[in-house]
């Protein structure tokens, strides 16, 4: 039996959240079903308390035939260091990379310690690729990968299509210790129950926001309600999960599907607290869908607003209907569902008054919570090309790019000034007595308050 180790590379930050690595869990579940003779092991570095050397040692303890590493762009340093640590110990070991950084910046990911990269959605690619690699081929003719041949970069081109989401097995929760995540800071911050799990029920998004990696293309593909309910039953009955985070990019694109999932949860007697920490498409939400979500157990929803400047909305091609979204926020609040908002500041060429528009929108809204991120033009996104077209300087080092702190001057407000402006409005937002009262009214778990207060202080002080 062949052994494959998949590692989620991680990088600590003040806003770090920890969530089971659904990407490599989905990949492992799919490939081991398609190739029954393959034994998979998963490693998630920081939740397991592993540094680079510790992760390499743990990976090699499984005597793997191949190690795959998944990383975001700002984790590219960890990706490269981990690959080097593995090769130092076993120079002949096959090491491949996947995930957002390998997809959008494959030439950077292809260091001498990484044999090849898998780009984009990996399930079908790995099912075709793995037997050929294990048979000794080092430069197989498989679509969806890239490698270096005699030092020259070679890309085999994208795959012709994508896997049907209904063919995906339940993600491989059996390959992680799910309980390990229950007491760590999680995506979405607040919770009702410790015992939670994330679930992604669709791939791709039909919108064309320029800051997006588009890992899964733009053709929206969703699992049928029956498959989603299958996975929910597995989570509740096998793993004791009491809370589910749906992390789709656009869960509510198909309203009939949402209604069927919600009705199925109730009809099957499933009991979950439900949150949406990743952002539903806010301006297409309607009252009927909100009622269904509430009845199924939804207590918190995030809407990605990004910018309140109509010009910036056009520039980033998000095209959110801001007035409609304000109504949806109020309608969500009226159902006693906590409402979170995502905002970004510092877009290329963004003016001070446009940044102030965004803060003003957040401050005057009925949002309970808000996150203010700094614009990051990741390599491979249209936003990166927009910044370069404007003659703006973007750092070439991918792991210097992250959205926790401004790393470059893209807008007309210098980075240091933008940092201070964001801190001021972050404090104005959260120290508003009216908002504090509204948060307290719906706060789902008062035992969290001390830890969240400490987290609030860390984020506030970080910008000084």
Overview of the molecule:
This protein has 464 residues and is α/β, with parallel strands linked by helices. The protein has helices at 22-34, 52-60, 76-89, 100-104, 106-109, 123-134, 225-239, 255-267, 287-296, 310-315, 322-334, 352-364, 382-389, 415-430, 433-442, 449-462, and strands at 2-8, 38-44, 66-70, 94-98, 116-118, 145-149, 152-155, 196-199, 202-203, 221-222, 243-246, 273-280, 298-306, 338-345, 369-374. Strand 3, helix 3 (76-89) and strand 4 form a beta-alpha-beta unit. Helix 8 packs parallel to helix 9 (287-296). The longest helix has 16 residues, at 415-430. It is globular.
Task: Give a brief rundown of this model.
The chain has 464 residues and is α/β, with parallel strands linked by helices. It contains 16 helices and 15 strands. Helix 1 packs across helix 6 and helix 7 (225-239) packs parallel to helix 8 (255-267).
Low-confidence stretches: none
Taken as a percent bin, the fraction of beta residues is 15-25%
Q: Could you give the count of β-strands?
A: 15
CATH superfamily of the largest domain: tm_1862 like domain
Largest beta-sheet details: 7 strands, mixed
Key structural traits:
Rossmann fold, six-stranded parallel β-sheet, pyruvate-formate lyase- activating enzyme, 38% helix, 464 residues
What's the arrangement of secondary structure elements?
Layout: E1 2-8, H1 22-34, E2 38-44, H2 52-60, E3 66-70, H3 76-89, E4 94-98, H4 100-104, H5 106-109, E5 116-118, H6 123-134, E6 145-149, E7 152-155, E8 196-199, E9 202-203, E10 221-222, H7 225-239, E11 243-246, H8 255-267, E12 273-280, H9 287-296, E13 298-306, H10 310-315, H11 322-334, E14 338-345, H12 352-364, E15 369-374, H13 382-389, H14 415-430, H15 433-442, H16 449-462
Parallel strand pairs: 1-2, 1-3, 3-4, 4-5, 8-11, 11-12, 12-13, 13-14, 14-15
Antiparallel strand pairs: 5-6, 6-7, 9-10
Helix pairs in contact: 1-6, 2-3, 7-8, 8-9
């Amino acid at each position: 039996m062949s052994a494959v180790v998949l590692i989620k590379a991680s990088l600590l930050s003040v806003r770090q959240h920890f969530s089971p690595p659904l990407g490599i869990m989905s990949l492992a579940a799919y490939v081991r079903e398609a190739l029954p003779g393959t034994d998979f092991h998963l490693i998630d570095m920081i939740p397991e308390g592993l540094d680079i050397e510790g992760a390499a040692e743990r990976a090699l303890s499984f005597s793997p035939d191949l190690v795959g590493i998944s990383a975001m762009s700002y984790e590219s340093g960890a990706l490269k260091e981990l690959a080097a640590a593995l090769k130092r110990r076993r120079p002949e070991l096959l090491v491949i990379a996947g995930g957002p950084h390998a997809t959008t910046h494959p030439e950077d990911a292809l260091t001498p310690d990484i044999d090849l990269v898998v780009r984009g959605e990996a399930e079908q690619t790995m099912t075709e690729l793995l037997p050929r690699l294990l048979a000794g081929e080092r430069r197989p003719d498989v679509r969806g990968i890239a490698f270096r041949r005699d030092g020259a970069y070679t890309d085999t081109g994208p795959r012709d299509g994508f896997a049907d989401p209904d063919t995906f097995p339940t993600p491989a929760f059996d390959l992680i210790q799910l309980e390990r995540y229950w007491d760590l800071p999680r995506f979405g911050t607040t919770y009702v129950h410790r015992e939670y799990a994330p679930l992604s029920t669709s791939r791709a998004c039909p919108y064309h926001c320029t800051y997006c990696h588009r890992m899964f293309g733009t053709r929206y593909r969703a699992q049928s309600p029956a498959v989603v309910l299958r996975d929910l039953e597995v989570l509740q009955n096998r793993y004791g999960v009491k809370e589910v985070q749906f992390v789709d990019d656009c869960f509510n694109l198909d309203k009939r599907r949402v209604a069927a999932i919600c009705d199925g949860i109730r009809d099957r007697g499933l009991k979950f607290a439900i949150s949406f920490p990743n952002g539903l498409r806010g301006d297409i939400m309607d009252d009927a869908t909100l009622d269904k979500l509430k009845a199924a157990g939804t207590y918190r929803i995030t809407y990605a607003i990004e910018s309140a400047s109509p010009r910036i909305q056009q520039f980033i091609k998000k095209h959110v209907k801001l007035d409609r979204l304000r109504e949806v926020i109020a309608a969500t609040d009226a159902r006693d569902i906590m409402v979170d908002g995502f905002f970004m500041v510092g877009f290329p060429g963004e003016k001070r008054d446009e940044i102030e528009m965004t803060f003003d929108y957040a401050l005057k809204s009925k949002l309970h919570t808000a996150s203010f991120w700094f614009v990051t033009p990741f390599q491979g996104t249209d936003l990166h090309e927009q910044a370069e077209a404007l003659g703006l300087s973007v750092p070439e080092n991918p792991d210097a790019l992250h959205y926790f702190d401004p790393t470059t001057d893209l807008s007309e407000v210098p980075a240091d000034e933008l940092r201070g402006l964001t801190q001021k409005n972050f404090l104005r937002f959260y120290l508003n007595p009216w908002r504090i009262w509204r948060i307290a009214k719906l706060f789902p778990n008062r035992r969290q308050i001390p830890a969240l207060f400490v987290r609030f202080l860390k984020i506030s002080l970080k910008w000084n």
